[in-house]
Amino acid sequence: MLRRAAAKRQKGFFSSFHCQRPLSGRRHSPLVDSISTSIRPFPDYSPKKPAIRDADLVRSVVAALKQRRSEPPRVVLDPFSARFRADHLVWSLPHLQSDPALVYALLHWFRSRRRPLPAEALAIAAHVAVVADDLASARRLVRDGLISHRNFVDRMIYTYKYWCSVPSVFDVLFRAIVDINRLDEARALFHHLLTYGIIVSSDACNALLARLTLDQMLSTFAEFQELGLGWDTKSYNIIIYGLCSAGKAEEAHRILFEMESNAGASPDVISYSTLIEGYCRDGMLLKAMELFEGMRDRGLTPNAFTYNSIVTLLSKNGKVVEAERMFVEMMQCGVAPDHVVYTSLINGYCKNGNLTAVYRLVEGMKNSRLVPDVVTYTALIYGLSRTGKMVEANRIFREMVSKGLSPDEVTYTALIDGYCKEGKMSDAFHLHNEMLQLGFFPNVVTYTALADGLCKKGEVEAANELLHETSAKGLELNAFTYNAFINGLCKVGNIEQAVKTMEDMEAAGLPPDVYTYTTLMDAYSKSGEMDQARNLLREMLDKGIQPTIVTFNVLIHGFCASGMLEDGRKLLEWMVEKNIMPNSTTYNSLMKQYCIEKNMKKVTEIYREMCSSGVMPDENTYNILITGHSKARNMKEAYYFHSEMVSKGFSLRVSSYNAYIKVLIKKKRLTEAKRLFEEMRTRGLAADREIYNIFIDINYTEQNVEMTLELCDEAIEKCYPEPESNMT
Length: 728
Fold this sequence. Notes:
This protein is mainly alpha-helical. It has a domain at 529-616. Helix content is 67%, strand content 0%. The protein has helices spanning 52-67, 73-77, 86-92, 100-112, 119-131, 135-148, 152-163, 168-179, 183-194, 202-209, 214-226, 233-245, 249-260, 269-281, 285-297, 304-316, 320-332, 339-351, 355-367, 374-386, 390-402, 409-421, 425-437, 444-456, 460-472, 479-491, 495-507, 514-526, 530-542, 549-561, 565-577, 584-596, 600-612, 619-631, 635-647, 654-666, 670-682, 689-701, 705-719. α12 packs antiparallel against α13 (249-260) and α38 runs antiparallel to α39 (705-719). Residues 1-11, 15-37 and 724-728 have low confidence and may be disordered.
């Protein structure tokens, strides 16, 4: 028999949660009137004695059962049915104590006569089953007793000393009370059994922990621990899971530290994996990775669940290369990836447009005998639609359907969005109608895509009607819907209607966000109305909306395009003052405009400022610098930036090729010019007429007739449009 621990355990994290509180709203009869702290003996079993006639009947029944055990109990016992009562059942059980099968047979027969089994008989039978190590039967009998009799717990305690004396029977009793969701009674039983020196096992108590709310879980853990229960690793894992599910991964981490200092409950793979998943769910990648390394330092091998969590978060954060590196490590460690891992990676690569990697993963998935599911196919369709590959997206969609997989609203919306982005509104609405015919209800995202597509086609009135129709269907328009509509209106130059829509958005209780303001600023900037764009920035700041770097880049580009370079320069200085870090796009706008104005001194000044601020030049930066210096005939500078550009893996664009080739020719560096011209042709880029004419003349002078004719044909095809037909 387990005895109450003499010394209290260290309370640790749980000390603040030690309190008594009801675990459910249901009320049952109290198991005891009071709880004593002293240990008392179990009661002696003393059933009433049978009369001589009753004793004879019991002997006859028991003898018949033992002698004719091969026959059906009904055949053996039915002759005694008229005289056999509940008392006879209880009196018969001591004679069958060593034969559980006959005990079960007798109870089953008695119940088949439509007679309720007495609580005492069920309790005795449960004890007999535990002694025989038949825990499945014991659990079934205890459950029946609890459901049928209010005094069943008392009967279990009353019959324990004579019939069982195996403490694990109370684990069975405790688990059964938890399983029928009488959680208050379970905790009361724990206290009551302490008065007899019995501590319910941590395994049984874990079933109670797993059913409680987080606050109740923590208080019960602390309370039972103080009363002498030694919680195990599974117990701590339940607490860690509960805290992580509530978004309290930091608190769950403190539990892990407590486990590491507790010899009785060391953290295992599940402990770490649950906490890693908690950090990943909260988007705390660094914490998750630190824990992942700590797990391996302790000699624990990550499982599929551990890897899944990290791969999924890396993919979600756009770090797909790192995610695949973890994926490869996973397979090298012999952990087989499942649908979730493959789909996470596929989704990540779809979002950054790397369809080569997507197809490779799909092939790997099939080689692993994992059949793509609806989520996988939807990720593929989304990625293809997003990159404008609608023929391929439609093929994947039809393949999905042919394999018996049913597309859902998300799948249809991905396709519809792709068609809308391409301006293929008839295809988009065809799919919308197909959705309705199949019983799917388009959601607000579907209608947002359709409205955005209509706006981009200039069909603003149709988009407006669609949004009103959406509202009439009970779908609440969200900020994305309004922003898409505003963006569409701005794209077709209808700024007045876009501003009115922003006012409608605010009236609907949806405050315009940074995207709304930036979209309108961009429209005003492109139309040269910089005062209006500047006013919107002030309005944003007055409302406490923090502009993004995109907002500032839109304004600086607008100032530059309008010839207001000083204003653009001042805005950049203000950004730096306010610790708003400019990016390459910010500096590129200013450099480009100064190049147009042939002020290369200013361009060089901004470039140096950019580098000293720690902002790395991008491909656009180098193209602006090479074009500007080439047009200014600064051969050395153009050559320097071109060499640096190539070393970083960047490429020239058409205008840069043209400008650079021309300056090379003017500086009589024909070999380099010719090499760049051939490189340009190899990439399928068309030089301008002047360059074609120069190289046609060079080849003609060198009597290279074949190349001269080839360049003439190419120049006519790429530089000279066909004249319109005047046929009537």
